[in-house]
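Lecture notes, part 5. Sequence design as translation. It can be helpful to think of inverse folding as translation between two languages: the language of shapes and the language of residues. The source text, in structure tokens, appears below.
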């Protein structure tokens, strides 16, 4: 008998418990810079050095953080379910926790990208992208991150995956960030849906959505117990 497919949408609340700061923690500011200065194509054009430094610091910080109990619980569920994670997070904590199937909607911190050919993406074994670091076509490398105002190329695969879910979980996000938040609309109508977040979403909730109003680590403990009791 084939195992049930659990599709999970994760957000900043999962990484926050590992000590990774989010934009929203500081009202959209980073060292007194507006997010649009460090996370938009316009910001890149105006001050490339600042943008590179911003992501270098985030990369360095993320490498010092460790997966938490929520990351580990998701990985452990692979013993019982076919688990697919769609994450808004750009860190690699899901992978480091042992999750096999992770789709990054907004890019990955540990990769760099050509500024002339978006298909040229490189794994990084260090935490810095410097001015003058170039792709094979001679163009400056940029962070492999989807910035505000850019298309989200992984949304289509994420939608298709969501349509196949037997169970759907939203973890560590209150469904405020679009287009990722719209994924819940692609869940099959009869599929049980769960949401774990300390903040109850300020949206009209589907009657089939069960809300566990806890931080990610505590909520995953409750969710795991509930799901395993039903298998």
């Amino acid at each position: 008998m084939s195992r049930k497919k659990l599709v999970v949408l994760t957000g900043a609340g999962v990484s926050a418990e590992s000590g990774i700061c989010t934009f929203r923690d500081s009202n959209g500011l980073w060292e007194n810079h507006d997010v649009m200065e460090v996370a938009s194509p316009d910001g890149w054009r105006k001050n490339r050095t600042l943008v590179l430094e911003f992501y270098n610091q985030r990369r360095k910080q993320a490498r010092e953080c460790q997966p938490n109990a929520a990351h580990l619980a998701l990985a452990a569920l692979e013993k019982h379910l076919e688990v697919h994670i769609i994450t808004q997070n750009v860190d690699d904590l899901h992978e480091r926790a042992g999750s096999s199937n992770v789709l990054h909607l907004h890019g990955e911190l540990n990769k760099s990208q050509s500024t002339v050919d978006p298909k040229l993406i490189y794994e990084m074994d260090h935490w810095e992208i410097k001015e003058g670091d170039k792709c094979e076509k001679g163009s400056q490398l940029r962070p492999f991150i989807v910035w505000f105002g850019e298309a989200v190329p992984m949304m289509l695969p994420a939608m298709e995956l969501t349509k196949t879910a037997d169970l759907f979980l939203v973890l560590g996000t209150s469904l405020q960030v679009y287009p990722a938040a719209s994924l819940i609309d692609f869940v099959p109508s009869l599929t049980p849906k769960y949401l774990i977040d300390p903040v109850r979403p300020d949206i009209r909730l589907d009657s089939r959505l069960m809300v566990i109003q806890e931080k990610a680590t505590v909520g995953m403990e409750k969710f795991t117990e509930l799901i395993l009791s039903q298998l």
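The translated text above is only one of many valid answers, since several sequences can fold into similar shapes. The mean pLDDT is 91.
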